[in-house]
């Protein structure tokens, strides 16, 4: 098993500034402090999506509502300060995050159970059941705000 802060796909970590690993509590604090958060839900979010669907945060479903690349280009212009991603193909997301990291002021957070080095902040590598528990904890802490 890979370490907790080693890229899920080792060849994906090609830049010098890798994502900082965050816990669910820190992720909730980031959402709480943001002025305009956005949650991007991909088609591979699995069971975790049912815990995130009814959050009072603006959501975009990709690719059902919008293509990821079109969304990545739109995010900096729309005034979002925190964008969270879950359930998007790893290498596709990694490329989009590289654009946001280097060409905008938007803070990015990945809620997948895989460490994504091109985000600003990422959950660590986790087993599937551990990831589902982290999403449940994330939701519970958000409800308690």
TrEMBL record:
InterPro entries: CdhB (IPR003704), DHS-like_NAD/FAD-binding_dom (IPR029035). SUPFAM superfamilies: DHS-like NAD/FAD-binding domain. GO terms for biological process: methanogenesis, from acetate. This is CO dehydrogenase/acetyl-CoA synthase complex subunit epsilon.
